[in-house]
Amino acid sequence: MDQEAKDLLMRGATQLGVELTSAQLGKFALFAAELRKWNHKINLTAITTEREIALKHFVDSLSLCRAVGKGGRLLDLGSGGGFPVIPFAILHPKSEAVSVDAVEKKIIFQRHVGRLLGLSYFQAIHARGEELAGRFAGHFDWVVSRAFSDIPTFVHMALPLLAPSGTIIAMKGQAGREEAETSGPALEILGVEIRQVMEFPLPFSGDKRSLIVMGRKNAS
Ligand SMILES: C[S@@+](CC[C@H](N)C(=O)[O-])C[C@H]1O[C@@H](n2cnc3c(N)ncnc32)[C@H](O)[C@@H]1O
């Protein structure tokens, strides 16, 4: 990453309440370099400039920390090129971070990045989210997704994998609150409640983002 992209990432993270160490910044720079290199061969992302990667992938992913302050066992469903799970793993290197995607080449890329960055508690699994319940039933403190599916589909997939008092977070854009409201009846059937809708502008771009924070009704 060039200096401008590094500065944007540092300052963007600070605006989200995250102070990155120089070691963490170095890991983000390595991740960006591999993302750009691999993107020439396999289609991982349409976001390709260093500036865009810093803002639209890294800072955007770090906005998850507004809800997930302290780490814990985290699952990212439909993680693609590793978002938001790899930024989370860089920030919380001692937290178990599991990444799942149905497309194998994306998982091979993520495993490569995990090894390169020394993320010992990170694992990337090639599977469909629906197939994980046997292996990880009730396991995760946090099940998250970004740009994955509609809220009820995501929650339906996340529930069997969630610890009894765990939290589900859908990372959404401007229309997040409206989608959360229209999902109410479907969530009711699943026994899930919306605990909070966090809305905020992304640093620099001002683009609207929202975190839909949910959990089991009987757990709160
Ligand atoms: C639009 S991409 C978003 C990737 C990443 N979360 C991001 O924000 O950059 C959605 C990803 O979900 C994956 N996916 C779709 N359905 C899935 C399923 N049932 N189980 C696992 N992965 C799935 C796709 O392969 C794709 O990589």
Automatic annotation (TrEMBL):
Keywords: Cytoplasm, Methyltransferase, rRNA processing, S-adenosyl-L-methionine, Transferase. Pfam families: GidB. S-adenosyl-L-methionine binds at residues 78, 83, 129-130, 146. It is an enzyme of class 2 (transferase). Its EC number is 2.1.1.-. Transmembrane segments: none annotated. One of its GO terms (molecular function) is rRNA (guanine-N7-)-methyltransferase activity. Belongs to the methyltransferase superfamily. RNA methyltransferase RsmG family. This is Ribosomal RNA small subunit methyltransferase G.
